[in-house]
Amino acid sequence: MSSSTLCALLQLLPAMLSKVQRISLFLALVALCAITLYLTHLASSPVSHLAASMSVTHVVLFQFKKEVSPEAVRNLSTRMLGLKDKCLHPLTQKPYILSSSGGVDMSIEGIQNGMTHAFVVNFASKEDRDYYVQKDPMHQDFVKSAGEVVEKAQVVDFINGEL
């Protein structure tokens, strides 16, 4: 419905509706327009959380330095998992990491190549992952401090389902 059609209808309303009914109808139309704009924005947003098929999984493996205490390893691991709540999207200022999990290796295969801890971080989009890796100040601080206790790190990222 065009805005001119809507205006024409609104001009006919005074004769048919009371003032309270006209105001209620007007507010309902404004709300409907706002919802439509919001849904249009979500559908066109490059960081849309609705696009689960484009989500990115970020896998991080750590080998800690031999001289590092178990307490320091636990501390870094806890901080790694805590990034989920501390990393904030630059526009919304809300956490943007969808999920984060990790822990001590317990594989029986024996092909860890020295890696002792694994973490999996999920993002809604490549853009969110890129911001995390390249610009997020909380992540940047974490990476700098990790160098004190991490001997070697490996990172693999993939788009879920893209083979």
Automatic annotation (TrEMBL):
Residues 56-158 form the Stress-response A/B barrel domain. PANTHER family: PTHR33178, STRESS-RESPONSE A_B BARREL DOMAIN-CONTAINING PROTEIN. Homodimer. This is Stress responsive A B barrel domain-containing.
